[in-house]
Specification:
Layout (H helix, E strand, L loop, with lengths): L3 H14 L12 H11 L4 H14 L3 H5 L3 H8 L6 H17 L7 H5 L6 H10 L10 H10 L12 H9 L4 H17 L18 H4 L20 H13 L5 E2 H5 L5 H13 L4 E3 L2 E3 L3
Antiparallel strand pairs: 1-3, 2-3
Protein backbone atom coordinates (compact mmCIF):
# COMPACT_ATOMS: atom_id res chain seq x y z
CA UNK A 1 0.00 0.00 0.00
CA UNK A 2 1.16 3.52 -0.76
CA UNK A 3 1.38 5.45 2.51
CA UNK A 4 0.82 9.12 3.19
CA UNK A 5 4.46 10.18 2.69
CA UNK A 6 4.62 8.39 -0.65
CA UNK A 7 1.42 10.06 -1.82
CA UNK A 8 2.79 13.43 -0.73
CA UNK A 9 5.88 12.76 -2.82
CA UNK A 10 3.65 11.87 -5.76
CA UNK A 11 1.68 15.09 -5.38
CA UNK A 12 4.90 17.13 -5.19
CA UNK A 13 6.22 15.38 -8.29
CA UNK A 14 3.04 16.21 -10.17
CA UNK A 15 3.17 19.87 -9.26
CA UNK A 16 6.73 20.06 -10.61
CA UNK A 17 6.44 17.87 -13.72
CA UNK A 18 2.83 18.10 -14.91
CA UNK A 19 2.41 18.89 -18.58
CA UNK A 20 1.09 22.33 -19.47
CA UNK A 21 -2.20 21.32 -21.08
CA UNK A 22 -5.10 23.67 -21.89
CA UNK A 23 -7.67 21.86 -19.73
CA UNK A 24 -5.46 22.31 -16.67
CA UNK A 25 -5.61 26.11 -16.82
CA UNK A 26 -7.34 27.65 -13.78
CA UNK A 27 -9.82 29.49 -16.02
CA UNK A 28 -10.89 26.37 -17.93
CA UNK A 29 -14.60 25.90 -17.24
CA UNK A 30 -16.69 22.77 -16.68
CA UNK A 31 -17.91 22.65 -20.27
CA UNK A 32 -14.33 22.81 -21.54
CA UNK A 33 -13.50 19.91 -19.23
CA UNK A 34 -16.36 17.86 -20.69
CA UNK A 35 -15.16 18.60 -24.23
CA UNK A 36 -11.55 17.75 -23.39
CA UNK A 37 -12.44 14.46 -21.69
CA UNK A 38 -14.55 13.27 -24.63
CA UNK A 39 -11.81 14.26 -27.07
CA UNK A 40 -9.18 12.50 -24.94
CA UNK A 41 -11.07 9.20 -24.84
CA UNK A 42 -9.33 7.85 -27.94
CA UNK A 43 -6.96 10.62 -29.03
CA UNK A 44 -3.50 11.59 -27.78
CA UNK A 45 -3.32 14.59 -25.46
CA UNK A 46 -0.90 16.41 -27.77
CA UNK A 47 -3.43 16.34 -30.62
CA UNK A 48 -6.32 17.39 -28.42
CA UNK A 49 -4.25 20.27 -27.04
CA UNK A 50 -3.91 21.66 -30.57
CA UNK A 51 -7.61 21.44 -31.40
CA UNK A 52 -9.53 22.18 -28.22
CA UNK A 53 -8.97 25.95 -28.14
CA UNK A 54 -10.27 26.23 -31.71
CA UNK A 55 -13.30 24.17 -30.79
CA UNK A 56 -14.14 26.22 -27.70
CA UNK A 57 -13.55 29.49 -29.52
CA UNK A 58 -16.27 28.43 -31.94
CA UNK A 59 -18.67 26.82 -29.45
CA UNK A 60 -17.76 28.10 -25.96
CA UNK A 61 -20.95 26.89 -24.24
CA UNK A 62 -23.22 23.85 -24.44
CA UNK A 63 -25.94 26.05 -25.95
CA UNK A 64 -23.62 27.12 -28.77
CA UNK A 65 -22.81 23.53 -29.71
CA UNK A 66 -26.41 22.38 -29.28
CA UNK A 67 -27.53 24.87 -31.94
CA UNK A 68 -24.68 24.19 -34.38
CA UNK A 69 -25.28 22.47 -37.75
CA UNK A 70 -24.12 18.88 -37.41
CA UNK A 71 -22.14 19.01 -40.65
CA UNK A 72 -20.09 21.87 -39.20
CA UNK A 73 -19.51 19.91 -36.01
CA UNK A 74 -18.13 16.99 -38.04
CA UNK A 75 -15.95 19.32 -40.10
CA UNK A 76 -14.52 20.93 -36.97
CA UNK A 77 -13.85 17.50 -35.46
CA UNK A 78 -11.49 16.95 -38.36
CA UNK A 79 -8.87 14.26 -37.80
CA UNK A 80 -9.39 13.66 -34.08
CA UNK A 81 -10.63 10.19 -34.95
CA UNK A 82 -13.70 8.15 -33.98
CA UNK A 83 -16.07 10.89 -35.20
CA UNK A 84 -19.10 9.38 -33.50
CA UNK A 85 -17.73 11.16 -30.45
CA UNK A 86 -18.54 14.47 -32.15
CA UNK A 87 -22.19 13.44 -32.47
CA UNK A 88 -22.26 12.24 -28.85
CA UNK A 89 -20.72 15.52 -27.71
CA UNK A 90 -23.43 17.49 -29.49
CA UNK A 91 -26.09 15.23 -27.92
CA UNK A 92 -24.45 15.88 -24.55
CA UNK A 93 -24.61 19.64 -25.13
CA UNK A 94 -28.30 19.46 -26.01
CA UNK A 95 -29.06 17.42 -22.89
CA UNK A 96 -27.17 19.89 -20.67
CA UNK A 97 -29.23 22.72 -22.13
CA UNK A 98 -32.54 20.86 -21.81
CA UNK A 99 -32.01 19.29 -18.38
CA UNK A 100 -29.64 21.67 -16.58
CA UNK A 101 -30.22 25.10 -18.09
CA UNK A 102 -26.94 25.01 -19.97
CA UNK A 103 -24.77 24.39 -16.90
CA UNK A 104 -22.66 21.24 -16.53
CA UNK A 105 -23.88 19.34 -13.45
CA UNK A 106 -21.44 18.46 -10.68
CA UNK A 107 -23.10 15.28 -9.42
CA UNK A 108 -21.65 12.07 -10.89
CA UNK A 109 -25.07 10.45 -11.30
CA UNK A 110 -26.38 13.51 -13.14
CA UNK A 111 -23.33 13.43 -15.39
CA UNK A 112 -23.78 9.72 -16.04
CA UNK A 113 -27.36 10.38 -17.14
CA UNK A 114 -26.12 12.55 -20.01
CA UNK A 115 -25.75 10.91 -23.45
CA UNK A 116 -22.15 10.29 -24.36
CA UNK A 117 -20.92 10.39 -20.75
CA UNK A 118 -19.63 7.11 -19.33
CA UNK A 119 -18.32 6.19 -15.91
CA UNK A 120 -14.78 7.43 -16.52
CA UNK A 121 -15.81 10.76 -18.06
CA UNK A 122 -18.36 11.52 -15.34
CA UNK A 123 -15.81 10.94 -12.59
CA UNK A 124 -13.10 12.82 -14.46
CA UNK A 125 -15.27 15.94 -14.77
CA UNK A 126 -16.31 15.76 -11.10
CA UNK A 127 -12.70 15.33 -9.95
CA UNK A 128 -10.59 17.34 -12.39
CA UNK A 129 -12.89 20.35 -12.65
CA UNK A 130 -14.95 20.40 -9.46
CA UNK A 131 -12.26 18.89 -7.22
CA UNK A 132 -14.49 16.19 -5.72
CA UNK A 133 -13.28 12.88 -4.34
CA UNK A 134 -13.92 9.94 -6.67
CA UNK A 135 -11.64 7.24 -8.09
CA UNK A 136 -10.80 8.04 -11.72
CA UNK A 137 -9.41 5.03 -13.55
CA UNK A 138 -7.91 4.95 -17.04
CA UNK A 139 -5.29 2.73 -18.65
CA UNK A 140 -2.41 4.71 -17.15
CA UNK A 141 -3.83 4.59 -13.62
CA UNK A 142 -4.55 0.88 -13.86
CA UNK A 143 -0.93 0.21 -14.93
CA UNK A 144 0.52 2.26 -12.06
CA UNK A 145 -1.70 0.49 -9.51
CA UNK A 146 -0.97 -2.94 -10.99
CA UNK A 147 2.76 -2.34 -10.59
CA UNK A 148 3.00 -0.29 -7.42
CA UNK A 149 0.29 -2.04 -5.40
CA UNK A 150 -0.08 -5.54 -6.86
CA UNK A 151 3.47 -6.17 -8.10
CA UNK A 152 2.36 -7.00 -11.64
CA UNK A 153 4.01 -5.64 -14.77
CA UNK A 154 0.70 -5.10 -16.56
CA UNK A 155 -2.86 -4.43 -15.51
CA UNK A 156 -4.50 -6.90 -17.88
CA UNK A 157 -8.17 -6.48 -18.82
CA UNK A 158 -10.29 -4.06 -16.78
CA UNK A 159 -11.58 -5.55 -13.54
CA UNK A 160 -14.33 -4.68 -11.08
CA UNK A 161 -11.76 -4.11 -8.35
CA UNK A 162 -10.05 -1.27 -10.26
CA UNK A 163 -12.24 1.46 -8.78
CA UNK A 164 -11.86 0.03 -5.26
CA UNK A 165 -8.08 -0.15 -5.68
CA UNK A 166 -7.86 3.53 -6.55
CA UNK A 167 -10.46 4.54 -3.97
CA UNK A 168 -8.24 2.98 -1.28
CA UNK A 169 -5.32 5.18 -2.31
CA UNK A 170 -7.11 8.52 -2.19
CA UNK A 171 -6.69 10.90 0.76
CA UNK A 172 -9.85 11.78 2.67
CA UNK A 173 -9.73 15.49 1.82
CA UNK A 174 -11.34 16.02 -1.64
CA UNK A 175 -8.78 18.60 -2.76
CA UNK A 176 -5.89 16.31 -1.89
CA UNK A 177 -7.66 13.35 -3.48
CA UNK A 178 -8.19 15.19 -6.76
CA UNK A 179 -4.45 15.96 -6.95
CA UNK A 180 -3.53 12.32 -6.35
CA UNK A 181 -6.05 11.24 -9.01
CA UNK A 182 -4.46 13.35 -11.73
CA UNK A 183 -0.94 12.62 -10.44
CA UNK A 184 -1.47 8.86 -10.80
CA UNK A 185 -2.65 9.42 -14.36
CA UNK A 186 0.27 11.68 -15.20
CA UNK A 187 2.76 9.26 -13.69
CA UNK A 188 1.48 6.49 -15.95
CA UNK A 189 1.58 8.74 -19.00
CA UNK A 190 5.10 10.12 -18.47
CA UNK A 191 7.11 7.76 -16.25
CA UNK A 192 5.43 4.42 -15.57
CA UNK A 193 4.82 3.80 -19.26
CA UNK A 194 3.85 0.48 -20.77
CA UNK A 195 7.04 -0.25 -22.69
CA UNK A 196 9.78 1.76 -21.00
CA UNK A 197 9.09 2.63 -17.35
CA UNK A 198 11.64 5.08 -15.98
CA UNK A 199 11.93 3.87 -12.41
CA UNK A 200 14.84 6.23 -11.74
CA UNK A 201 12.50 9.20 -12.22
CA UNK A 202 9.54 7.71 -10.34
CA UNK A 203 8.57 9.44 -7.07
CA UNK A 204 7.00 6.24 -5.68
CA UNK A 205 9.71 3.78 -6.79
CA UNK A 206 10.74 2.96 -3.21
CA UNK A 207 7.21 1.74 -2.48
CA UNK A 208 6.63 -0.07 -5.77
CA UNK A 209 5.76 -3.75 -5.25
CA UNK A 210 6.75 -4.68 -8.81
CA UNK A 211 10.21 -3.15 -8.41
CA UNK A 212 10.66 -4.79 -4.99
CA UNK A 213 9.79 -8.18 -6.50
CA UNK A 214 12.45 -7.82 -9.19
CA UNK A 215 10.12 -6.86 -12.07
CA UNK A 216 8.49 -10.29 -12.58
CA UNK A 217 7.14 -11.03 -16.05
CA UNK A 218 3.39 -10.62 -16.30
CA UNK A 219 1.72 -14.01 -16.75
CA UNK A 220 -1.94 -13.04 -16.57
CA UNK A 221 -4.45 -12.37 -19.31
CA UNK A 222 -3.53 -9.38 -21.45
CA UNK A 223 -5.94 -6.79 -22.75
CA UNK A 224 -6.72 -7.30 -26.46
CA UNK A 225 -4.59 -5.23 -28.82
CA UNK A 226 -6.25 -2.94 -31.31
CA UNK A 227 -6.15 -4.16 -34.90
CA UNK A 228 -4.03 -2.37 -37.48
CA UNK A 229 -5.50 0.83 -38.94
CA UNK A 230 -3.95 0.49 -42.41
CA UNK A 231 -6.40 -1.17 -44.78
CA UNK A 232 -9.10 -1.45 -42.13
CA UNK A 233 -12.75 -0.43 -42.40
CA UNK A 234 -11.86 2.42 -40.02
CA UNK A 235 -9.44 3.77 -42.61
CA UNK A 236 -12.09 3.56 -45.33
CA UNK A 237 -14.63 5.35 -43.13
CA UNK A 238 -12.10 8.07 -42.42
CA UNK A 239 -11.34 8.44 -46.12
CA UNK A 240 -15.02 8.90 -46.96
CA UNK A 241 -15.58 11.43 -44.18
CA UNK A 242 -12.45 13.36 -45.12
CA UNK A 243 -13.70 13.67 -48.69
CA UNK A 244 -17.11 14.91 -47.51
CA UNK A 245 -15.58 17.44 -45.12
CA UNK A 246 -13.64 18.92 -48.02
CA UNK A 247 -16.69 19.81 -50.14
CA UNK A 248 -19.91 21.78 -49.65
CA UNK A 249 -22.01 19.57 -51.94
CA UNK A 250 -22.93 15.87 -51.89
CA UNK A 251 -20.54 13.36 -53.42
CA UNK A 252 -21.95 11.36 -56.31
CA UNK A 253 -21.71 7.59 -56.46
CA UNK A 254 -19.04 7.92 -59.15
CA UNK A 255 -16.98 10.25 -56.96
CA UNK A 256 -17.34 7.96 -53.95
CA UNK A 257 -16.24 4.97 -56.03
CA UNK A 258 -12.89 6.67 -56.66
CA UNK A 259 -12.12 6.91 -52.94
CA UNK A 260 -11.19 3.27 -52.31
CA UNK A 261 -10.13 0.39 -54.58
CA UNK A 262 -12.22 -2.34 -52.90
CA UNK A 263 -15.91 -1.72 -53.79
CA UNK A 264 -17.23 -4.19 -51.22
CA UNK A 265 -15.24 -2.68 -48.37
CA UNK A 266 -16.17 0.83 -49.52
CA UNK A 267 -19.88 -0.04 -49.56
CA UNK A 268 -19.57 -1.57 -46.10
CA UNK A 269 -17.99 1.64 -44.82
CA UNK A 270 -20.68 3.83 -46.37
CA UNK A 271 -23.46 1.67 -44.91
CA UNK A 272 -21.88 1.80 -41.44
CA UNK A 273 -21.35 5.58 -41.61
CA UNK A 274 -25.01 6.06 -42.47
CA UNK A 275 -26.07 3.73 -39.65
CA UNK A 276 -24.01 5.80 -37.21
CA UNK A 277 -25.63 9.04 -38.38
CA UNK A 278 -22.34 10.40 -39.72
CA UNK A 279 -23.54 10.66 -43.32
CA UNK A 280 -26.85 10.79 -45.18
CA UNK A 281 -27.47 8.61 -48.22
CA UNK A 282 -29.48 10.15 -51.05
CA UNK A 283 -30.38 8.71 -54.46
CA UNK A 284 -27.03 8.52 -56.24
CA UNK A 285 -25.08 10.51 -53.63
CA UNK A 286 -23.99 10.88 -50.01
CA UNK A 287 -23.58 13.99 -47.84
CA UNK A 288 -22.90 15.11 -44.30
CA UNK A 289 -25.98 15.45 -42.05
CA UNK A 290 -27.62 18.83 -41.70
Amino acid sequence: MLGGEILQALAAWYREHARDLPWRRPEFDAWGTVVSEIMLQQTQASRVAVEIDRWLARWPTPADLADAPTHEVLRQWGTLGYPRRALRLQDTARAIVERHGGKVPRDVDALLALPGIGDYTARAVAVFHFGDRHPVVDTNVRRVVARAVHGQGEAGPAKRRDLADVEALLPVEPGDASVISIALMELGALVCTARAPDCGACPIADACAWRAAGYPVFEGKRAPRQSSFAGSDRQVRGTVLRALRGVDVPLTEAEVAQLWPDPEQLDRAVVSLAADGLIVREPGAIRLPD
